[in-house]
Amino acid sequence: MQYDVIVVGAGHAGCEAALATARMGCKTLVLTMSRDTIAQMSCNPAIGGLAKGQLVREIDALGGQMGRAIDATGIQFRMLNTSRGPAVQSPRAQADRKAYHQYMKQTLESQSNITIMEAMAEEILTEANKVIGVTAKPKNQSNPLNLFTKAVILTTGTFMKGVIHIGDKISTGGRIDEPSAEHISDSLRRLGLELGRLKTGTPPRLHKNSLDYAELKIQPGDDIPKPFSFSTERITQEQVPCYITYTNAETHQIIKTNLHRAPLYTGQIKAVGPAYCPSIETKIERFADKDRHQLFLEPEGRDVPEIYCNGISTSLPADVQEEMVHSISGLTKARFIRYGYAIEYDFILPHQIKPTLGCRRAENLFLAGQINGTSGYEEAAAQGIMAGINAALKLQGKEAFILRRDEAYIGVLIDDLVTLGPTEPYRMFTSRAEYRLLLRSDNADRRLMPYGAKFGLITPEQKQKLDRKEELIQQVKTLLSKRIKQINPDNPLNQFTGKSLAQILKTQDAQLSKLIKLSPELSKLNLTAEVIEQVEIEVKYEGYIKRQVEQIARAGKMEDYRLSDGIDYTKIKHLSNEAKGKLNKFRPISLGQAGRIAGVTPADISVLMVYLKSPSTKSCH
User: Cα separation of 258 and 331, whole Å?
Assistant: First the structure.
């Protein structure tokens, strides 16, 4: 069996990777343990959130599927941080978990160039350090198959040697009630890769009919929900409310009393968990001064009974979970559908991957998602589409696709992975992006859709729509720059005669939508809300945007100094010993990236600059 690409795993990274390679013309095989778990939402049934919403918009702009999937299957939509500036506003939506899975499953099944096989990958086959295939054991068969390919994309999630903890009960599994992948880790070690262990967790699920809603605070969605995908005209489905409650002193005392039974504190769990999404046990210890913690009770679908208890991720024993939950207002009679649990799993230390997400140890082996040390559906999907695009480009003999930090949150994500080498599950935040005013969720199409069109992942119609939008934005900005002449004596704009509409727009409380109604030239353009939003942001934040553009230009000079993958840094005189070790380990592609590696000082960068300018230097370009 011969394929262009084999994608191992059909989670959020695997789906985006497979769709990208198939749509770029590669014959793609997807290996999954079960079709019934394609795009499974193992933890929170939601897409987006702070910074994560930006990632989803960027995936969509590149031609990915996640934004369209959540638009079609979401049950509640909210724009977060609307009281703050546009740089930190992010879309988020609750998903109907089963509907989302079904949508993505049908998308993969109907996509040309994709074959889906229910099988467990066991071995990566290589020849002269180049991938040639995968050994996999099909479902319900005892004999493995050798599947041959030109490239492999590994998206194994939490399945590599996964171990599940509920109190002192330990079981193997990649998710609850699903087997772990026991052999693929050993195969990667044989390739010379260094692996580590990480931990993540999930909270209990409760039956919706057992909650006392009179004791809970309702949390509705937005009146006018905003889509994730730039191809979605509007959200038409009815929204479902979520609810809020809080832990209390009794809850905290129950947890403290039983910490001696918590796997996190007994030494049973040895891997590192996410610092920014801690278990409720960790919260109680770390934030001892807090007398309560907020919980979000989120439906997992329209027609299912499960309620996801966002905020009490735990691996405490089942009896303690019952006592803890029943101490919380509104949950005193709650019935458990599933207990919370923690899971430990293998991952690849990400200094071993390139900015293309290709593996340094084996040519044409790509890795995406939690296998690289990240946490979250959105981070996984972002890596998936990038790995898919780069695998296809590699097979087509074309230049690799690497997004810069000033181009996308995806660029920040991948650059952080390959330069920082996270020691805990990596989660995206707006604070990680130094140019976040330019990397807003509202302008992802303008930033990245030309790339999607270039790779054939964006339709000509979508590109034409973007071009028309860009044209209107420039027309409006031109009109705004003109100084006002007297028009109709009754027109309120007459009081601003001699000023430009842009100057008026920068004043407090001025809105472009109101100015359009007063300006004959602007009203003739029939502007969409998206065009109005873009112009208003760019005019009002013009000074800040200009400052960030100047910062990017200065930083870009360092990115222009390219470093070859073949440099032996131990032979460069005057570099510190720490810098030599770190540079040989992380293999940066530019001086800019080298400067972001911990332990590489400005003095080391100066030495590298002298080295690059030396006529005798042969190994850099």
Answer: 20
474 vs 345: CA distance, rounded Å = 50
- In CATH terms, the fold of domain 560-613 is DNA polymerase; domain 1 (1.10.150)
Alpha carbons 55 and 37: distance in angstroms, whole number: 23
What is the distance between the alpha carbons of residues 419 and 327, in angstroms, rounded to a whole number? 44
Cβ contact 118:32 at 8 Å: yes
User: 56-69: per-residue pLDDT in tens?
Assistant: 999 999 999 999 99
Q: 88 phi and psi, to 5 degrees?
A: -115, 10
Distances (CA, A) of 545 to 436, 466, 552: 10, 21, 11
Fold of 2-200+345-454: FAD/NAD(P)-binding domain (3.50.50)
Read off the pLDDT of each residue in 143-168 and give the average, rounded to a whole number. Answer: 96
What is the number of alpha carbons within 13 Å of residue 439 lying toward its C-beta? 28
Class of 460-543 in CATH: mainly alpha
**CB 121, CB 135: distance < 8 Å:** yes
pLDDT tens, residue by residue, 213-244: 999 999 999 999 999 999 999 999 999 999 99
**Greatest CA separation for the chain:** 87
Residue among 554, 531, 545 at smallest CA distance from 479? 531
In Å, what is the CA distance from 93 to each residue of 104, 178, 287, 378, 474? 16, 27, 28, 12, 32
Task: Measure the CA–CA gap between 13 and 486, rounded to whole angstroms.
Answer: 58
E-strand spans in 173-328? Answer: 195-202, 205-207, 217-219, 242-246, 294-299, 306-310
Cross-strand bridge partners of residue 130: 127, 363
Pairing of β 2-8 and β 28-32: parallel
